[in-house]
Amino acid sequence: MSIQSVLFRTAGGDRALELTRDFCHEHGEAMLNAAAMLGGSAAHRRCLRLIADIAKGVVLSKALKHELVWLHRLVMLDFVGDPEREETARFMALDILDPRVEEICFEADRLFDLLVAIADEHPGCDVVQREIFDLSAA
């Protein structure tokens, strides 16, 4: 564990928040890049705000979990298909051989792993449970 991870530890002991902070420390830059690539500047700002809110949070609130699910849906291309959405245009412009596409797939898997860990720590959280169920049923 890195010194930065230790600095992110919470005094209140919310293990899900600790795991999320560790994820942001390790994968935050890649998630910001993915958000920009797949959702444009608005998605990039939203992801940046999410990471900042996680860094200053005391617990992993329901609002933060909603934002993590949004980010997961973005990298899983759930918003692609509606011709009115920016995500669709951005997806159509992607080169499937671009190495960043493979990185996004890797990061999407790591984010899913985080959501599973959050569900284990907060078993009553319907926000995360629903996202995991929706993916496993697909």
Overall residue-averaged pLDDT value: 88
Describe the main β-sheet briefly: none
In what range is the share of β-strand residues?
under 5%
Order of helices and strands: HHHHHH
Characterise this structure.
The chain is an all-alpha fold and 138 residues long. It has one domain. 75% of the residues lie in helices and 0% in strands. It contains six helices and no strands. Helix 2 crosses helix 3, helix 2 packs across helix 4 and helix 3 packs antiparallel against helix 5. The longest helix has 42 residues. The N terminus is likely disordered.
Keywords:
disordered N terminus; mainly alpha; 138 residues; 6 helices
Summarize this structure briefly.
This protein is mainly alpha-helical.
SSE order and pairing:
Elements: H1 3-7, H2 15-56, H3 62-75, H4 86-93, H5 99-121, H6 126-137
Helix pairs in contact: 2-3, 2-4, 2-5, 3-5, 5-6
